[in-house]
Amino acid sequence: MKRIIRSISFLILLGLPLTCWSNESSAVKLESEQKSVIKPQKKPVLIEADRITGYYKQEIEATGDAMLHHGDKVLTADRMKYYQQTEDAEVEGNVRLERPTDILQGQQLEINLKTEVGHLTEPRYSMKEGKGRGAGDILLFEGKDNYRIKDTNYTACPEGNHDWYLRAKELEIDNKKEVGTARHVSVVFKDVPLLYSPWLDFSYSGKRKSGLLAPVAGYNVRTGFDVGLPVYLNIAPNIDATITPRIMTERGFLLSNEFRYIGNNNMNGHLQFDILPQDIDRNRTRWGILFTHTQNLGKGWQGFMNYNQVSDDRYFRELTPNLAQTSLVNLSQQGGVNYNGRLGTDGVLNFTGFAQRFQTIQDPFALIVSPYERLPHFAVNAAKYNVGGKLDFELQSSWTNFYHPTLVDGNRTIFYPSVSAPLRNEYGYITPKFGLHYTHYNLAAPVDTKGENVDRTVPIVSLDSGIAFDRQLNLGDRNIIQTLEPRLFYVYAPYRNQDYLPNFDSAVNDFSFAQMLTENKFSGGDRINDANRAVAALTSRFVDKDTGVEFLRLAVGQMVNFTDPRIQLPLPQVTSGRSDFIAAISGRLTQDISTDSNVQIDQSKGVIEKIRSGISYQPEPGKVLNFGYRFTRDVREQVDTSIEQVDTSMQWPIYGNLRGVTRVNYSLNDDKILAGLAGLEYNSCCWALRVVLQRLTTATQTTTTAFFLQLELKGLMGLGNNPLQVLQQTIPGYTSVH
């Protein structure tokens, strides 16, 4: 009780000079009415201790468990002396200063509470933002939010762990910017110096900041040893850039440039531009540009651009180990606008306009025909629902000018109005629909004997119906709702000869459970299938009653063609049988096992047409096993076009924090590995080491091998070539475990 009374009394004593000072300010104001002088008041100081002595308005000495409160700071020590006039403090013995941004400890402290200038001996410091901490010989306070430590070390490892640390002659901490700047610094890992720099700055809280990033290094059989030194530019809160000079022993000097921005109205963009001024292997300049931009223009309008181009067909295969890029065939170069709005109270209106061309990346051993360019394309889609309380009207229309340097080109107009009369209640629906699909071509050259202007009109009639049942189940401690949803779909479209029409953009949709319930098996607008078929489908969904999350879906479907389809594209398709059956399952079989599988059977021939199957076992983050199987039956008689592949991948603990990662995509028909990956990763509390070897088939007769090695010092930098993106792309369910 004595201690509390002393604390309150010294708060009053320390406050008296502040009151007098405030009155003096008032006097100044009265003497000069023309000039108002407002001086900031001192922050109150509260001192607590076992024993407090001092002189009124001069100094206070506190000993024994002493504590000083000043604003948002708390200072504790064995003994402290505070000078009221100068606001200096002298503190010694188990010094601890806690501030909003950090905690500082040491043996002797001298500091001015007003200017925050002073020094601390034998300092130990820890950051509240991030996990940075360290110690040194002496700490120099240099004003609010800034201090320097001499002969210091710094680490983000937890207390008692020094697996990695910075050893610096001097370290400056800026708590306002949350940045550390070290001079004459070495990066030490397991007591082995890895890197020396006369100067190094870093963000200890993870915030963005301009400066040099850690060097990256790797190996690829196409590029040789690859070393880069990234420079990060934090241009503005919404704009940044990364410029990386790279040296490749087999190719030469490459400059990689990445630019990102975001803005108001959901505007965002990303530019990647790489240039190799002189490829020492190809003896030419090589470059690549990838640019995307989207922006909300207001009032329902949006703008977009997607532009991609490379200097040559071998660019991706020779200069990047990224599977997503090496597998690119047609690089889109597209820009346009779209509009989404209301059409009255019960209608929607959509407009799209764009221009699009492609750069086709050719494999010299498997040449393909490049797609048509659309210069330009305009589409208007509209729907008006509940007209007269019974009918829904829809319109799909477009006008496109197609261009191709070697094939017949021209423009195409599509006008497809339809009307449906949906009948619905709480347990089911029946929707009859009638549409008239009209297409007009204005071609640059005559086709067949039809001339340059040709038309096609196809009426389409469909009937869609479904019923939904549900029941409640109890599976262990889970409350489940199971649905049973039978569906019957019929479509009729008469045969119209379309062999004389050009094919600008049509292809056969991959047969699936969703596709079998559509009117047209072709994408694009150049082919409308002749149809006289019915589909019977049954879906059962399992939904968690408490969360509403669907965790498992079972579906079967039977398609029956009452007449053989006559409209075919040049390549035979696997959906031409009189009767096709499909079954699918997706979701979680148990808490740890999930699957996504489907099979298609041609019952008229009694053969399996397609299998797409995948199953995954993931009991916890960092432990996943995946197995996939893909099969497509050969549909040509003279050329083997069948596909049969297995795909396995894994991330699994080996011992302690050591994990293995593997992935194999194997072609059973070709008896070869299409893609392979193997590696090890070790993840500790404050560092990670990853070693990965990857081999890819990048073209018909071309493969590439890449080697990744990265040491990640968590909270500071990553040294080497980061394989995380490769692991996440190739191993479904991969998790970087900290």
UniProtKB/TrEMBL annotation:
Domain LptD C-terminal: 285-655
Keyword Signal: yes
GO annotation (BP), single: lipopolysaccharide transport
Pfam families linked to this entry: LptD, LptD_N
UniProt keywords, alphabetically: Cell outer membrane, Membrane, Signal
Cellular location(s): Cell outer membrane
Stretches assigned to the Organic solvent tolerance-like N-terminal domain: 48-178
GO cellular component, one term: cell outer membrane
Classification via InterPro entries: LipoPS_assembly_LptD, LptD, LptD_C, OstA-like_N
Signal sequence range: 1-22
Family: Belongs to the LptD family.
Biological role: Together with LptE, is involved in the assembly of lipopolysaccharide (LPS) at the surface of the outer membrane.
Subunit organization: Component of the lipopolysaccharide transport and assembly complex. Interacts with LptE and LptA.
Protein name: LPS-assembly protein LptD
